[in-house]
Design brief:
The complex is a heterodimer of chains A (112) and B (117). Chain A has 112 residues and is mainly β. Chain A has no helices and 11 strands. Helices cover 0% and strands 48% of the residues of chain A. Chain A is globular, with a radius of gyration of 13 Å. By secondary structure, chain B is mainly β. In chain B, 0% of the residues lie in helices and 52% in strands. The model of chain B has no long low-confidence stretch (mean pLDDT 97). The chains are: A mainly beta (112), B mainly beta (117).
């Protein structure tokens, strides 16, 4: 199975400041169809996950544009340009290129 | 609006069984693959099982293979997970999830399964 490794696992951030989370895969996530199926999810405390980003950099409907995804091959990142209070929670990366789908360990974002 | 509503969780003794259900609405259930994903307390997300849209194929994580069975009733728009020979390490919130083209597009609210004597 593809191992997804996130860093950091804990991310204290001051309101209004940027934040960045790294996600690395144990093998390339480029699919045979040419797409890269790397997703990001946000899970608020006590809630279920919600998808933010699919195929590396595509924001889901309703996701603020302060969220952006980037990367290629095995190295990916989620960036928040200016952290707001509602951004607290756990961020998960997930690959859908190789079966089975696998997730990173999760990164807990908190406000300093 | 897509809705996935799980039920059937609870407290069960080691070695016991539970059946989870997930009622789907707001999308064409009959055309979508579906998953179960679990999250142990304070831990990350782990994929458990998947079923194709017409139930012609299923897959399982090694940790549950031979003990869990995924199924669906497309007429009732309902997904199931039969869990047998439960162990303490199966304790988790179980999420029903809708596949969306090499991704998970929607999640249910989750149902808690606690395996303890």
């Amino acid at each position: 199975d593809v191992v997804m490794t996130q860093s950091p696992l804990s991310l204290p951030v001051t309101l209004g400041q940027p934040a960045s989370i790294s996600c690395r895969s144990s093998q390339s996530l480029v699919h045979s169809d040419g797409n890269t199926y790397l997703n990001w999810f946000h899970q608020r405390p006590g809630q279920s996950p919600r998808r933010l980003i699919y195929k590396v950099s595509n924001r889901d409907s309703g996701v603020p544009d302060r969220f952006s995804g980037s990367g290629s091959g095995t190295d990916f990142a989620l960036k928040i340009s200016r952290v707001e209070a509602e951004d607290v929670g756990i961020y998960h990366c997930m690959q859908g290129t190789h079966w089975p789908y696998t997730f990173g360990q999760g990164t807990k974002l908190e406000i300093k | 609006e897509v809705q996935l509503v799980e039920s059937g969780g609870g407290l069960v003794q080691p070695g016991g069984s539970l059946r989870l259900s997930c009622a789907a609405s707001g999308f064409t259930f009959t055309t979508d693959w579906m998953h179960w994903v679990r999250q142990a307390p304070g831990k990350g997300l782990v994929w458990v099982s998947r079923i194709k849209s017409d139930a012609s194929g299923t897959s399982y994580a090694d940790s549950v293979k031979g003990r869990f069975t995924i199924s669906r009733d497309n007429a009732k728009k309902t997904l199931y997970l039969q869990m047998n020979s439960l162990r303490a390490e199966d304790t988790a919130v179980y999420y029903c999830a809708r596949d969306l083209y090499y991704s998970i597009g929607n999640w249910g609210q989750g149902t808690l399964v606690t395996v303890s004597s």
